[in-house]
């Protein structure tokens, strides 16, 4: 039981011992308040357990979204500048996917485990002693609305990515293919033409919210707010991810042009049935 609730229960026990009249009523009150204290403790424990589950699910969502289902791409030789900006940008994107993204997956896994330890430490004083970096005086570790929003965005984004993986099968790659093996028009590709990109955005925004919202270890420990190293690490992380996400949006038109060139009338008929690129009714 957390220290606050133990003190709460002890207070009522002291009250019982100090009252000499109507002992049976006092015993009833004591039992009643102990029952309330236990219910409150269970509620706090359930909240911590739920938050831990959501943190883990968010971490899994991140790994699912940013792990190439058919293996990491090979980085080709850097193209000459004469090839143009689009080719240069795509080469750098593939380089980041192959060289930087594996490291980010490891780092986010560590961040997820650390967040779980932080939640556990907020509920158990012995964990606070063993893992002092996870604890700060009176941390705010409850579930907030923004935390829930971030968790839901992450999970939905991962589900969307998995649906795209299954639809494309072996044809799903993180690099832009010049020759696609087949035009896929079913599943999420019957709603928008580039659904996996929206899934990626969701699995970037959602986990970022979960890790940076008030109540997370990064905020409650002061790692971001009070240290230069923390700010540099977080901003660099978001900058790298942001580059990748922007590149996905910039890919949409060139990718459509490549598929139109390859599949011709088949692509045109699909584009008429599925006019939106990313968001139904918007774009």
Automatic annotation (TrEMBL):
Compartment list: Membrane
Signal peptide: none
InterPro entries registered for this protein in UniProt: ERG24_DHCR-like
Keyword Ligase attached: no
Membrane topology note: Multi-pass membrane protein
TM regions (residue ranges): 40-65, 146-168, 228-250
A Gene Ontology term for the protein's cellular component: membrane
GO molecular function: oxidoreductase activity, acting on the CH-CH group of donors, NAD or NADP as acceptor; transferase activity
Protein origin, superkingdom: Eukaryota
Keywords on record: Membrane, Transmembrane, Transmembrane helix
Coiled-coil ranges per UniProt: none
Primary location group: membrane
GO biological process: one example: sterol biosynthetic process
Protein name: Protein-S-isoprenylcysteine O-methyltransferase
């Amino acid at each position: 039981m957390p220290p606050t609730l133990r003190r709460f229960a002890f207070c009522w026990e002291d009250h019982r011992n100090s009252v000499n009249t109507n002992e049976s009523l006092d015993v009833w009150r004591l039992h009643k308040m102990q029952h309330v204290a236990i219910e409150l403790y269970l509620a706090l424990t359930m909240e911590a357990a739920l938050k831990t589950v959501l943190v883990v699910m968010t971490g899994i969502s991140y790994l699912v979204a940013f792990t190439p289902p058919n293996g990491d791409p090979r980085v080709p030789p850097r193209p000459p500048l004469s090839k143009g900006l689009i080719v240069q940008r795509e080469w750098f994107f593939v380089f980041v996917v192959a060289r930087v993204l594996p490291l980010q997956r490891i780092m986010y896994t560590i961040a997820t485990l650390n967040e779980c330890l932080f939640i556990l430490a907020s509920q158990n004083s012995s964990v606070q002693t063993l893992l002092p970096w996870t604890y700060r005086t009176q941390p705010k570790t409850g579930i907030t609305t923004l935390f829930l929003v971030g968790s839901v965005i992450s999970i939905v984004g991962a589900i969307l990515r998995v649906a795209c993986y299954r639809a494309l099968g072996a044809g799903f790659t993180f690099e832009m293919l010049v020759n696609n093996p087949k035009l896929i028009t079913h599943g999420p590709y019957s709603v928008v033409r580039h659904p996996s990109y929206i899934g990626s955005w969701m699995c970037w925004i959602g986990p970022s919210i979960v890790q940076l919202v008030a109540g997370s270890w990064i905020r409650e420990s002061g790692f971001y707010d009070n240290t230069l190293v923390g700010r540099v690490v977080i901003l660099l992380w978001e900058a790298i991810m942001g580059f990748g996400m922007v590149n996905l949006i910039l890919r949409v038109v060139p990718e459509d042009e490549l598929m139109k060139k390859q599949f011709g009338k088949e692509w045109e008929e699909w584009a008429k049935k599925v006019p939106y690129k990313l968001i139904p009714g918007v774009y």
